[in-house]
Design a protein that fits this description.
By secondary structure, this protein is an alpha+beta fold. It has two domains: about 45 residues; about 180 residues, Alpha-Beta Plaits (2-Layer Sandwich), CATH 3.30.70.1230. It is about 45% helix and about 25% strand. Strands 1, 2, 3, 4, 5, 6, 7 and 8 form an eight-stranded mixed sheet that branches. α4 runs antiparallel to α5.
Length: about 250
């Protein structure tokens, strides 16, 4: 604004500044909305709200972290998929994954990814948690997930759909967690041997049971442990000590 100036020029300049500020505010609000929308895909609402208010600082750069990894996979869903049409299968799968997500979020876990009917969840990232609390939250999530599946099975059976079973595997160990990908597409995930071990434990678990590493079992109440044994896991040169965990109260 040059000098001298008149009231009309001053008013126009003020209006331009106000419009600029309003636009900056809209951009900031949009950025916050987009950020929260992305976070809500894998984080509980409580953590997203803490991040939005600044109460929790989320640094999603890849970093080493000791975490607890939970894998689950349905048993009998593939034959069911062959019997039902693709649209009905998609509806059932979304019902199931939605219920599993709710159970994981309710216990402070992070949904890493879905792999068909498989679910990978993390405890202790991105929010750091004591290792004992990680293990206990993961186990609480499994029990809630299993109860939710029982409810789904009951409803599906009333519709003439056969029930399905599930296997769970849990391990605790070191991993690198954070955003991986490119500027175009990135996902929050964990990589490392502990993720693979949780997957291998799930593979050898009996249907409708949970198998955990001996290391993780040390953080659970003794009366939850049904059996301790050594099993041969795919990709490991020597047997691994594992524990079967009680899913239901006596």
């Amino acid at each position: 604004l040059g000098k001298p100036f008149n009231d009309r020029e001053l008013l126009a300049e003020v209006r331009n500044l106000l419009a600029l500020k309003a636009n900056e505010r809209r951009v900031a609000e949009l950025n916050q909305y987009l950020t929260e929308s992305v976070l809500r895909r894998f984080l509980p609402a409580s953590l997203v709200n803490k991040a939005a208010t600044g109460e929790l600082q989320l640094d999603l750069k890849p970093e080493p972290r000791l975490i607890t990894v939970l894998f689950s996979d349905l048993v009998g869903f593939t034959p069911l998929s062959n019997q039902l049409g693709p649209l009905r299968v998609a509806q059932l799968l979304n019902e199931y994954l939605g219920a599993m997500t709710d159970a994981i979020f309710a216990n402070g876990g992070t949904v890493d990814k879905f792999m068909g009917d498989g679910v990978l969840a993390l405890f202790g990232a991105p929010e750091e948690l004591p290792i004992v609390e990680q293990a206990q939250r993961a186990m609480a999530a499994v029990k809630q997930m299993h109860a939710a599946l029982a409810d789904l099975n009951q409803r599906w059976q009333s519709q003439g759909i056969q029930s399905v079973r599930v296997r769970y595997g849990i391990h605790q160990g070191d991993a690198v967690v954070g955003m991986f990908g490119s500027v175009v597409r990135a996902d929050y995930t964990a990589i490392g041997p502990c993720v693979n071990l949780a997957s291998r434990l799930q593979e050898v678990a009996d249907p409708n049971s949970v198998l955990v590493s001996w290391e993780l079992a040390q953080h659970l109440p003794e009366d939850m442990i049904l059996e301790t044994r050594s099993v041969k896991l795919r990709g490991l040169p020597t047997p691994m000590r594992v524990c079967s965990i009680r899913l239901h109260e006596s």
